[in-house]
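Repro:
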Amino acid sequence: MRPLFQSPSSLPRQHRRTPFASGRPFRTSRATRFNAFFFLLVLSLGGSLLLLWRLQLLQRPLTEDGKRLTLSEKVTETNGNAGKADQGTDKRFTSGSSNTGTGSISNSGGNNKAPSLLDADNEDDYDDADFLLDGSTDATSAGTREEGKGAGKADAIGGENKEPSADVARKHEICKRMIKSPPLVCAHGGDASYAPPNTLAALERAVAVGADAVEVDASLTADGHLVALHDRELQSLLNDPSARVSSLVFSRIRQLDLSSLWPATSRRDDLSAATERVPVMTLQQALQALIDRVKHITVDVKIATSAIAENRHMAQRLVSVFEKVGGCSECLVWSKEDQFIRHLSRIQPSIKTGYIVYRNFKTGVVNGLLRRESSHVVGLAESLATLQTINDAHKGGKKVHVWTVDDRAGMRRVLGLPVDVVVTNNPTLLRKTMRRLQQQCKHAGLG
């Protein structure tokens, strides 16, 4: 028989009461408490220092490539703005003011401030960064940059860094081209940032914002009608990635309503237009809306297959449409289907044609297209637009159209190259970017 009372030490281990269970306070040694306090102190100090560093980093200005200036670079930039507006990390062209700390440090010119696109166009989506920094024209040529390496070292006079002569010459060349013979602004499908592409609203908007040229897509229906519609828009409209214009008859295409493809943008003046029915235009209607209103029209022919019969049928239908609109002397026809372009050139040599060069082309294919005598234009994908390729095309007597450039960084880079036409979905942004660059060139006395 178990005794009535037992000491804890005599109980089995699972029945012994812990200090917490017995109600006695849990005691720790002085060393343990000190270590815990010291750990918490170090942790809080580290967090505070990290927060202060982060706040200081956020106050530093951004460079052209989106990186933060280091402290030494920031000081250099501030000093350059105070005394030498043509020096500093981020101040190559303009001589505007720079705000640091609680005050504002301006150049000695005072009111002689570089023109800002904000002042000219009332836009809030532009910064004051220069457009002709090295990063803006990466594709000019590696050779030009190599030539200017030695010239960029410190000069003996006052230890100042003079701008490389090759870089200055490059800027003079860019400004001269931008002021005297700037590239044409080609609206891809009209102003696609405002309205569904290839619609009357998009075409009218492109003309209204000052686009020099417009590119219109041309697809052949199953029963042989040319319509201004891209498979991409059809697939989005029908929510069917396999949809093709070539598989639908014209009567079915005419029933489509493109109003659901209105872009979600606040730039549209009349939002009620998004609720109105937007029909698909024929190619003839699209051309008639543009002829004598723009300098240039590009017809981008979409071929469903590379079959010879389809290429011939498409070429015949296109020639027929051109005849109905009076020849369309300002028109250019290009396509990713080279066989179609060759056939069109044979049956109607008077029509200007072009070849499209896109991302997965090999160097040999690109060089072959540049040498073909049957084409008047080479359409280069933006990623393939380099000074060497453009110069090769010009040597072969071909104009260069670069497509499709929609962001400011891409526009600045392409505008630093001797291109003839820039294709974009946002002609308004491209036009303003060009105007800002021209203002900066004139302010700097270049060109």
